[in-house]
Amino acid sequence: MTTTPVKPPELREFYENPAVPVASGTPRSRRQARMLAEALGPATAGRSRTILDIGCGDGTAAATAAPYLPGHRIVGIDWSQDALRRARTRIPYAVRGELTDGGLPLRTGAADAVLFSEVIEHLVDPDAALDEIRRVLRPGGHLMLSTPNLAAWYNRGLLLAGVQPVFSEVSLRGIHGRPGREVVGHLRLYTARALREFVAASGFEVVRLAGAPFHGVPRPLRPLDRLACARPPLASILLLHARRT
């Protein structure tokens, strides 16, 4: 049996659709911003750090992070023109760029930190993406990556029941075999172990792995979802802090 892969232009059209969600939950953004603020420390006179929010979407995550990072400069980067138009209403700097070889509009080693929030699960080639992020980060620069957890506590139960895991998608046209209604274009999913190993193999030192809740969990289950954050391998969202070696 042969299969026909989705062509990149079709994926581009999907992400340029204004109806496709480009923002994720505020709790994740806040936790990630606090982790980065702790890693960078306060801005000092004449020493403003450059933080890239790669795949900034509509700018919500960068705008949420900004109060935790006073004095530092946050630059949003996305290749969706529709997302950039929305991002520019929330953050001062938003420019177009791509996660290909030399596709980010910065010189080598120009950035002090990268926010990479809910992007890697959408990529056809995550290896090339981390190579490009590593290029623009200075030695010792920080990578703050977040992504849904394939092994989230409820996904373990769903799989045992023969139900497609939350976050996973088998089509760009509709949801099949799992709870939920929104199609968001996830192509890859990671467990905590897989994410650690992948980032380390890409030339980064993993500093910390934490968990965050998922805003789409039904309200009665949200207390349990917050409790799961204490055990990152069970959490809904994985928050990984790494440094460029």
From TrEMBL:
BP GO annotations: antibiotic biosynthetic process; methylation
Keyword Ion transport attached: no
Gene Ontology terms for molecular function: methyltransferase activity
Annotated Pfam families: Methyltransf_23
Keywords (A to Z) from UniProt: Methyltransferase, Transferase
Protein name: SAM-dependent methyltransferase
Keyword Glycoprotein among record annotations: no
